[in-house]
Amino acid sequence: RCMVTQPEILMLDEPAAGLNPKETKELDELIAELRNHHNTTILLIEHDMKLVMGISDRIYVVNQGTPLANGTPEEIRNNPDVIRAYLGEA
To answer: Which residue intervals define the domain Branched-chain amino acid ATP-binding cassette transporter C-terminal in the entry (predicted)?
Structure first.
């Protein structure tokens, strides 16, 4: 229903919450279709990092309400501030 008006941007807040792995994969495919075939920008707020890393062109990381980093999935994966905030000091 959200696509009836052909929006330029679609905001999704925790769409994978409570989904099993099969449903999350289907969600991933649906988001990719919306982005690629309908030219829709997707703003995704999500804690499922596998989903986020697999679908995103750019990622903005927020830690306790404060912007921490932004970049490509590869840049975020290797960002020392993100690693420190989410994995702790080595």
So the answer is: 68-90
